[in-house]
Amino acid sequence: MNTNAVAKLLGVSPSTIQRWVKHANLKMNRNELGHYVFNDADIDVMKKIQEQINNGVLLQDIAAAAKKTRQATVRKEMRQEDFEKLLTKITELEAKIERKADEHVSYQLLQHRREIEELHEKIDTLTQQIERLEEKDRKNEMDSIDMVAASTEETGLFKRLKKKNFISSFLGI
After folding, report:
1. How far is CA 157 from the centre of its chain?
2. Which residues contact 38 (CB under 8 A, 6 or more apart)?
3. Residue 61 pLDDT grade (very low, low, confident, very high; cuts 50, 70, 90)
4. How many CA atoms lie within 13 A of 41 on its CB side?
5. Higher local confidence (pLDDT), 65 or 158
6. Can you give the residue ranges of every domain in the chain?
7. What is the average per-residue pLDDT within 115-137?
8. CATH of the structural domain 3-61, one choice from 1.10.10.10, 1.20.120.450, 3.40.50.300, 1.10.1660.10
9. Helices marked H in 11-79 — which ranges?
């Protein structure tokens, strides 16, 4: 069993199991990754330690119930064919990652291109609207100039008529 399984069995945390092993100076077996491996005898020792702690004995005072010599598993040499398989797998994964990255970049480029085209269309529409408004403004300006000129012309004519009427009325004509 591993540390987590023993912790669940005893109802404590995995760090508590590790602390018990360390403080009690237990010689535990470890796997190739350096993790504790517990057999039935080791689990019995853990149960005894838990019982002693529950009875009020300090962890520092607990002596190892069964001292064992430490055994480690020796990592075997990797065979050439296993190494080549692993290397092939890594190469395939790198190629997949690169393809995926290329696909992602291509997708982003297409999205940006679409956005740019949409912005160009909006710019063209706004430019046309501005041109129409400027043309309308020019027409309004011309109309107002014509109106001012007509108004000025009418005012001059009206003044002349008024003057003529005044003179005629004065002279009696």
Report:
1. 78
2. 1, 2, 3, 5, 6, 28, 46
3. confident
4. 9
5. 158
6. 3-61
7. 94
8. 1.10.1660.10
9. 14-23, 40-54
C-alpha 51 chain-centroid distance = 50
Per residue in 22-33, pLDDT (tens digit) is 887 778 888 888
Tell me the H-state helices in the chain: 3-10, 14-23, 40-54, 80-171
Euclidean distance between CA atoms 72 and 110, whole angstroms: 56
C-beta atoms surrounding 96 within 10 Å = 10
The pair of three-digit structure tokens given for residue 130, joined into one six-digit string: 């501005």
Token readout for 125 is 């529409």
Buried/exposed 119-145: b ≥16 CB within 10 Å, e otherwise? eeeeeeeeeeeeeeeeeeeeeeeeeee
Contacts of 140 (CB under 8 A, 6+ apart): none
Length of the chain: 173
